[in-house]
Amino acid sequence: MDFYADPPGTRLQDAACFTASLGGSSANIAVAFCAQGGQTALVTCVSDDPVGQFCLNQLSHYGIDTKYVRQVAGEARNSLAVVDTNGTETQSVIYRNDAADFQMNEADIAGIDMAGFGAVVTTGTVLAAEPSRSATFAAFDKARRAGIPIIFDLDYRPYSWPDSRTAAQTYARMAQACDIIIGNDDEFGVLAESYDDGLAAARDLAASGKTVIYKMGHRGAITLTASGEFRTGIFKVTALKPTGAGDAFMGSFLAALANGAPLQSAVLRGSAAAAIVVTKVGCAPAMPDPAELDAFITAHPGPSLPKD
Q1: How far apart are alpha carbons 141 and 146 in whole angstroms?
Q2: How many whole angstroms separate alpha carbon 122 and alpha carbon 169?
Q3: pLDDT string in tens for the chain (308-residue length)
Q4: Which of 26, 74, 133, 194 has the fewest beta carbons closer than 10 A?
């Protein structure tokens, strides 16, 4: 669940009211994919309380199948993100004590027929604790046996992990199991256990046959495959906040691939969706539909790369 300081431009400490919306990286990716005409089911846990029910209602509102979302009782709680929309000075405060999504277990995976899906997507957040870590690896094993692609967004949140070493070891294991891996330069640095070696690690993964997208913020992204690599720029906009950009990228990128777009075109559509989302309040409600995304790309002068 996300709370955004209202109206836009308000700092958290000065806010008199907040706008609530669905949050969480996996949920946002699912919303972005559905907004582009795709179909998704989310596998997770939410708290068995009104906040958890709010999130279930919101998932249904955005067209996401919730049959694999389990409500958990006890002290587990849905995470909360409190964010302002103050442009380059955006602040966010994340609450993840006893996070409900970490309660997902292997039993939640056992009943899923992976053959009924086109891909399995996860973010790194779910790997930071047990039992959700083991459940995710179980899901990937099932996906591999079913012959469907596995997509991994590194999505490193240091406050969720016991230490960076555990994250690096887990990410390395996960990356070997995946077909598409997406992350920023810092996140690949965690995987490589050296911020100077992140790009080299991405290139090694690509050489092994994986598709890797190495994002570099305002410097654009490098997409790497076994056959080569290419660089793409960003669609410059005036941002209200940075949150949701990576989720918008992932969902719209995957939707473009699912619709048969070439890899470079899919990357650019993901970048355009990210640019749209950062100009609006919220993440899930800001995800563009195909008409909005097409109109933005047509009207925008195009992606640009820094001169350095």
Answers
A1: 9
A2: 17
A3: 999 998 888 888 999 999 999 999 999 999 999 999 999 999 999 999 999 999 999 999 999 999 999 999 999 999 999 998 887 678 899 999 999 999 999 999 999 999 989 999 999 999 999 999 999 999 999 999 999 999 999 999 999 999 999 999 999 999 999 999 999 999 999 999 999 999 999 999 999 999 999 999 989 999 999 999 999 999 999 998 889 999 999 999 999 999 999 999 999 999 999 999 999 999 999 999 999 999 999 999 999 887 65
A4: 74
Can the peptide bond before residue 7 be classed as cis, meaning omega within 30 degrees of 0? Answer: yes
Runs of H (alpha helix) within the chain: 25-35, 50-61, 106-110, 132-146, 164-177, 185-192, 198-207, 245-258, 263-277, 290-299
Which fold would CATH assign to domain 24-68+99-299? UDP-N-acetylmuramoyl-L-alanine:D-glutamate ligase (3.40.1190)
Please provide the distance, in angstroms rounded to a whole number, between the alpha carbons at the two ends of the chain. Answer: 39
